[in-house]
Design goal:
Blueprint (H helix, E strand, L loop, with lengths): L1 H9 L15 H69 L1 H64 L2 H22 L1
C-alpha cells in the first residue's frame, strides 16, 4: 500500500525544465495511457455510435409505422364489424320474435373476436418495439466493446516491448506478494 501512495505523491514532483527522459513509474504512465485511450475511444467512437443509433432508430420507427398500419387495418376491420353490427341489430329488430337470443349471441361473439384481435395486434406491436430496442442496444454494446478492445490491444501491442513486459510482470508479482503478506 505504501508503494501505491508513493507513486501518487511522486506525480506532484516534476523534473527540472531542461531534462528529458522516460517515466518508468508504471502507475502514472498507465493513468496517462488510459486517459489517452479513453479520449481516443470517445472521440472516434462517438460518430460510429451515433450512426448505429440513428440506423436503429430508423428501423424501430419503420417497425412502429408497420405496427400502426396493422392497427389501422384492425380499426378498419372494427368499423366494418360495427357496420355489420348495426345491420345485425336492424335484423334483430325484425326477427325479435323468432330468435332474439341467437342474434344477441352472434353480436357478442363478433364484438369479443374483434376486441381480441385488436388486443393481440397491440400486444404484437409492443413486443416488436421492445424486441427491436433490446436488439439495438445489444448490437451497440457489442460494437462499442469490440472497438474499445481493438483500440486497447493496438495500443498495448504498439507500446509493449519485452523489457517493459518483464518489468511489468515483476512489479505485479511484487505487489501481489506484498498484498499476500498484508492479508496473512
Amino acid at each position: 500500500m505504501r508503494n501505491v501512495t508513493d507513486s501518487f505523491v511522486s506525480l506532484g514532483h516534476w523534473p527540472s525544465a531542461g531534462s528529458f527522459g522516460f517515466n518508468t513509474d508504471i502507475l502514472s504512465t498507465n493513468l496517462i495511457n488510459l486517459s489517452v485511450v479513453l479520449g481516443v475511444l470517445i472521440f472516434f467512437g462517438k460518430g460510429v455510435l451515433s450512426d448505429l443509433l440513428d440506423n436503429r432508430k430508423q428501423r424501430i420507427l419503420n417497425t412502429i409505422r408497420n405496427s400502426e398500419e396493422l392497427r389501422g387495418g384492425a380499426i378498419e376491420q372494427l368499423e366494418k364489424a360495427r357496420a355489420r353490427l348495426r345491420k345485425v341489430e336492424i335484423e334483430a329488430d325484425q326477427f325479435r320474435v323468432n330468435g332474439y337470443s341467437e342474434i344477441e349471441q352472434e353480436k357478442l361473439n363478433l364484438i369479443n373476436s374483434t376486441s381480441k384481435t385488436l388486443e393481440q395486434l397491440e400486444n404484437y406491436k409492443n413486443e416488436t418495439i421492445q424486441f427491436e430496442q433490446q436488439r439495438a442496444i445489444n448490437q451497440v454494446r457489442q460494437r462499442v466493446f469490440q472497438q474499445a478492445l481493438r483500440g486497447a490491444l493496438g495500443t498495448l501491442n504498439s507500446r509493449l516491448n519485452n523489457e517493459l513486459h518483464l518489468r511489468t510482470i515483476s512489479a505485479n508479482i511484487g505487489m501481489l506478494g506484498s498484498m499476500k503478506e498484508i492479508t496473512d
